[in-house]
């Protein structure tokens, strides 16, 4: 049996350079990545962190492979919750699909089992990637209203 992983593919109306910028620019990541600013020089072997504005670290990692504006691979260890799960790997792959559209494939793998990290991130990735697509295509933040909030506002 193969190791569990999360795989997402979506088409985004953007150039590879614009999409790469949104993935790697700390001025842009807080808009779609739960408020986290990405921090790295994006050199192989360098640290990569997602941090909140107060300095608290959400994700700790290391750049494993980088090929701007096509591919970024980094390790991933959660810091927003305590667990003993080993680091996993996130691969961002950007494939041009014409002059104005890219296919973004994000694979979060390296899980030893369907452990706490696997469960914790599975609901976050669709929100992050939907927010990224919205930001790149419209320049705006994705606003998600839960059914409970809609009822409270009715």
CATH superfamily: START domain
Q: Based on CA inertia axes, which overall geometry fits?
A: globular
CATH class: Alpha Beta
Q: Low-confidence runs (pLDDT<50, min 5 residues)? A: none
Strand line-up of the largest beta sheet = 1-7-6-5-4-3-2
Secondary-structure arrangement, i.e. CATH architecture = 2-Layer Sandwich
**What is the domain tally?**
1
Enter the CATH topology name: Alpha-D-Glucose-1,6-Bisphosphate, Chain A, domain 4
| Order of secondary-structure elements | EHHEEEEEEHHH
Which class of secondary structure composition applies to the elements?
alpha+beta
Number of contiguous helices:
5
Characterise this structure.
This protein has about 150 residues and is an alpha+beta fold. The chain has one domain: START domain (Alpha-D-Glucose-1,6-Bisphosphate, Chain A, domain 4), CATH 3.30.530.20. Helices cover about 25% and strands about 35% of the residues. Strands 1-7-6-5-4-3-2 form a seven-stranded antiparallel β-sheet, with helices on one face.
């Amino acid at each position: 049996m193969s190791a569990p992983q999360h795989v997402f593919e979506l088409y985004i109306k953007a150039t590879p350079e614009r999409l790469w910028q949104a993935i790697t620019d700390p001025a842009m990541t807080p808009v779609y990545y739960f408020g986290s600013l990405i921090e790295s020089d994006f050199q192989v072997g360098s640290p990569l962190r997602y941090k909140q504005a107060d300095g608290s670290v959400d994700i700790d990692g290391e750049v494993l492979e980088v090929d701007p504006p096509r591919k970024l691979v980094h390790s991933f260890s959660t810091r927003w919750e305590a667990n003993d799960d080993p680091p996993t790997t996130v691969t961002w792959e950007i494939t041009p699909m014409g002059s104005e559209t890219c296919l973004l494939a994000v694979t979060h793998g390296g899980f030893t089992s369907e452990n706490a990290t696997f469960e914790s991130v599975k609901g976050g990735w669709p929100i992050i990637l939907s927010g990224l697509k919205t930001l790149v295509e419209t320049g705006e933040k994705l606003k998600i209203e839960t059914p409970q909030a809609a009822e409270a506002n009715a």
